[in-house]
Amino acid sequence: MFCRNCGREVNPQAVICVSCGVHPAKGNKHCQWCGAETNPYAEVCIKCGVRLAKFTPANAKSKLVAGLLGIFIGGLGIHRFYLGYNGIGILQIVVTIITCGIGHLWGFVEGILILTGNINKDAQGNDLID
Question: Residue 101: helix, strand or coil by DSSP?
Fold first, then answer.
């Protein structure tokens, strides 16, 4: 296996490349199977024909889950807690209580925005996965 960032050979169980200090699957400059340079937007390595791996963090959040939580129980801010925005989640609960449930519309609209891709990052800046 090769590091997708620097192209150096790494142990398949490696969590970090000792040459560049990046997770071996996080780059997009080299093929993970042969180490050849690749186009950052390529889907397949043109040297060995293997599909190039896309890096997904282990704690990646689902766009579908966040959107559905927002639509159905958004007034409780559950979708915001799920994405790591605890302060906004608490604020949504308070607004929903003060407005006798009308604040649920805020969560409903955010759920739609999440599903359409207008809100596409969690609190840590990671992209939401499909």
Answer: coil
For residue 72, how far is the Cα from the chain centroid? 22
The one-letter code for the residue type at 90 is I
As to burial, measured by CB atoms within 10 angstroms (0-12 exposed, 13-18 middle, 19+ buried), residue 12 is exposed
Model pLDDT for residues 16-34, shown as the tens digit of each residue: 999 999 888 888 899 988 9
Torsion of CA 110, 113, 114, 115, to 10 degrees: 120
Q: In degrees to the nearest 10, what's the CA dihedral of 85, 91, 96, 102?
A: -80
C-alpha separations of 98 from 80, 102, 109 in Å: 19, 9, 18
Most confident listed range (5-14, 38-47, 103-112): 103-112
